[in-house]
Amino acid sequence: MTKACIPLLRLNTALYGVVEPLLASLEHDARDLPLAQKTSMTVGMGMTEKQGGSDVRTNTTRAIPHGSGPWGEAFLLTGHKWFFSAPMCDGHLVLAKTDERGATCFFVPRWRPDGSKNAIHIQRLKDKVGNRSNSSSEVEFQDAWGVLIGEEGRGISTIIEMATFTRLDCALSSAGFIRQAFAQALHYTRNRHAFGKALADQPVMTEVLADMALESEAATLLAMDLATHFGSTTALDTAWRRVMTPVAKFWNCKRAVGLTGEAMEVFGRNGYVETGPMGRLFREAPVNSIWEGSGNVMCLDVLRAVSRNPGDAHLVLDHLQDVATQAPTVLAQPHTLRDAMQQPPETLERQARRFTQRLALVTQACLMLQHASAEASAAFIGSRFDPDWGPVTGITAGTTNPAALLREAWA
C-alpha cells in the first residue's frame, strides 16, 4: 500500500512535497511520531464499511470542509471503517462523502501537521485466520483531520488507482505462495522415503509435483509479465494493465489456495501440525483472494474493462493470437473469447468466471510458449486445455516426462 499510494499522493503537490523523501527512504522508522519528525513512513487504506463491503458507493463516512492548511484543502471526517489496514501506518487513504460531491479520497495522517494526535479511534483488531503479523482493525473517525486527494466527488476512481497496484502485488505474492508450496513439497518428498524409494520418485507423486511445477512457472510468468506493463504508456501496455490486472489477481490468488492445500497434503500428517511450515502458508494464501477485491469482483472488473474499452480487449487478444500461432490448441482460444464478448451483458456476466479463467489460461500458455522450455510449455498446454484437467492437481500431458520437469524446476 505504501508503494501503491505514491501516484495518488502526487495529486496533492503540497502534501507530496512533504512525504516524498519519507516514501523514498530505505530505512524503516517504526516510531509513532508526526511526519515532520520521521525518517520514513508507511501508508494504509480505509475503504470498507460494514454495510457495503466491496460496494463502497454505500459508504456513509462524512467529510466536512475545514478550510485550507499547509497540505491543501482540509476536511473533518466522521464515521466508521470496518476494515482499516493497517492501523500502525503513519497515514491512510480514506473514502468519505462530502455533502456536495459525494465519495471523495482523503489522506488522513495519524498526527495532524500541528503536532496533535488525529481523532482516529481503534475499536479492535481483527482476529484473522492468517496474515496475523499485519494488523487489520475497525476504527471510528470523530472529526478526524484529512486533506483532499484528487478531485472532490471522484474518490472511488481515484482510490481504485491505488488498488490497481496492490492487485498486482497480490498476483505477485500469490505466485510466491505457489512457488514456496512447491519448493517445500519437492524438498520434503526428495528426502522422505517409503516403499523402497523417495516419495518424489513414486509415479503418482511425481505427477503431482510436476503439475505443481508447471503451475508455479505459469503463475510467476503471469505476474512478472503483468509487472512489465506497469510504467509504460504504449497502447498495448495500457490495455494489458486494464484487462489483465484483475485476471492475474483472480487466477493466481485462486490457484494459490488450492496449491498450498495440495502441498500440505504432500507432507501427510506432518503437514497438519503447527511445528511444520505448511500451516501458516495454508492460512496465509486465501487473504490475497479476498482483499483488494474478491474473485467475483475481479471477474466483473474484467468484464467491465472489456465492455468499457473493447479496443483494449482486442489489442490483448491480437497479441495473444500472434504468439499462439505456434500452438494450434491455443490459437483457437482468442477466437472463443472474442465470440464470448459478443454475448448480451447479462449472459456474459453469468459466465464471468469461465471467461476470466479462459483468458488467464490462454495468457499463461502464450507466456510459456515465449519463455519456458519446449517440454514445459507442451506439458502446460497439453494439460490445461485437456477436458480432464481442473478438479485435482496431478494431471499433466500424458506424453511428457514429469521427472524432467522437476529437474528443470529445481535447477
Architecture overview:
Helices cover 52% and strands 17% of the residues. It has helices spanning 6-9, 13-24, 155-191, 203-228, 235-266, 278-284, 286-290, 295-308, 310-324, 328-341, 345-350, 352-371, 374-384, 402-410, and strands at 43-48, 62-69, 72-85, 91-98, 102-109, 120-125, 136-149, 193-194, 197-198. Strands 1, 2, 3, 4, 5, 6 and 7 form a seven-stranded mixed β-sheet that branches. A two-stranded antiparallel sheet has the order 8-9. Helix 4 (203-228) crosses helix 12, helix 5 (235-266) runs antiparallel to helix 8 (295-308) and helix 12 (352-371) packs antiparallel against helix 13 (374-384).
For this entry, give a set of tags:
7-stranded mixed β-sheet, alpha+beta, 2 domains, 411 residues, Butyryl-CoA Dehydrogenase, subunit A, domain 3, 17% strand, single chain, two-stranded antiparallel sheet, globular, Butyryl-CoA Dehydrogenase, subunit A, domain 2, 52% helix
